[in-house]
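INTERNAL AUDIT FORM
Audit reference: QA-55
Scope: verify that the stored structure record matches its stored sequence.
Auditor: D.O.
Record contents follow.
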Amino acid sequence: MSVLVVGISHNTAPVALLEQVALDGDGVQKLVTEVASGEHVAEATVISTCNRLEIYTEVDRFHGSVEALSKMLIERAGETTEAMLPHLYVHYDDGAVSHLFQVAAGLDSMAVGEGQILGQTREALRLGQELGTVGPALNSLFQQALRVGKRSRAETDIDRAAPTLVTAALERAVPEGVAGQRVVVVGAGAMAGLATATVARAGAAAIVVVNRTAERAERLAAEYGAVAAPLSDLGKEIAGADVVITCAGARGVLVTSDMVAAARPDARPLALVDLALPHDIDPQAAELPGVTLVGLAELAASLQATEAGQEVAAVRRIVTQEVAAFLNARRQASVTPTVVALRSMATSVVDAEMARLDNRLPDLDPRARAEVLQTVRRVADKLLHEPTVRVRELANETGAVSYAAALAELFALDPDAVDAVTRSTVAPEEGAE
C-alpha cells in the first residue's frame, strides 16, 4: 500500500479553472466518499481551499488509481480530459509525504507561510476520521504533517515574514491602509474571520459582517466589535463602505456591477477585494469609475514573486529533515511485524523442544531444566540477533528490495501471523491535532 495524491492548485491552474472545481462542505464530503469507494483505495480524504483541491489516498495500485482520481476532478470541472490534464499533478509515496509536509508548512501556499492552511489540513484529517475513510496510514501522515506545520511556525518567523492573502490583497487594493475606513466583510467562514480580524487590528473605523445566516454573522461580528447585517442589506452596506471584502464563495455572483453602480452613483472611491472561490464580485465592477477590484487572479500573479527569504529557506530545511525522519520511521515500522513474527516463531520452537525434552526426561532436575531452557533461549536469541538488526538497517536503504519479505520467505513465516502483528502494532492516534 502507498500514498497517492492527485490535485490541482494555483501553482498549476488559473483561478478561472480553480473556480470550476471549487467545492462547498457537502461537495467535499461527497468527493471523499466517492474516492473511498474506489476499487483500489483503502483510505481517503481531501484538502479543499480557495486555491487548491487535493485528493489524498492510500492505494494498492498506482495507474488505475491515478486514472480514477483524475477523472473525478475532471468531471467536477466540466472540462475535457485534454484541457484538464496539464493542470493536474500527481505525487506518489515518498513524494506524497514531501508534498503534504510542504503544504502544511505553508511553502506551497499562494501567500507563502500563511497559517490558514494548517487549519485546513486539520479539517481534512477530521473529516476523514468522521467519515471513517482515514485509517492508520493517512492518520499517521496527517498527524505528522500538522506537527511539521507547527514546528515550522514555532522555530521560524515564516508566518510573519510572508503576508496572508487578506493582508496582501488589502495592500494592493488600499495602499494607504484601512485605518479610519468603513469595511464590509461578506461571509462568516474562516477566511471572513481572518479578514475581520485583520481590518480590526489595522484600525478600521467600522466593520459590518454581512452573511446569509444571521446567527453566524452575529457571532463573528460580536468577536471583533463589528455589526452584523443580512445579505438582503448588502447593497445598502456597499453604499456606505470604503472597502468591501467578499469571502462567501457562493454559487453565483453576490456583488453585481449594477449593485455597485446603484450604491455609488457619485463615483466615490471604493475598494473591492474578492477572496472567494468561485468569485463573489462581478469582474465588470472594476470598470466603474472610482472602483478598484482585487481578486485571487491578481493576487496569484503578484504573490508568485514574493519570497520570505531566509525564513523560507529555514522552513525548507525543517521539511527536509521531517520528511527523512518520517520515511525512516515508516520503513522501520514496515519490518517490525516480520521481526516480531520471527521472534514469536523462535519462541514457539523453543517451547516445543522443551516440551519434547520433558517427555523424554520427565525426572530431569528443575534446576537443570531451567539451565537448559536459558541456554536454548540464548542460542535462539544469538542466531536471530544479526538478521533482525540487519533487516532494520537495510530497511532504511532505498531500492526495490523488500528485506522484510525476504526474511519472511527465508524463515517460512506464516503471512497471517505477520498481518496479525501489523494490525496490533499499527493503530491510528486518537483524534486530530
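Auditor finding: record pair retrieved intact. The beta strands are 2-9, 41-49, 52-59, 89-92, 182-186, 206-211, 227-230, 243-246, 270-274, 291-295.
Action required: none
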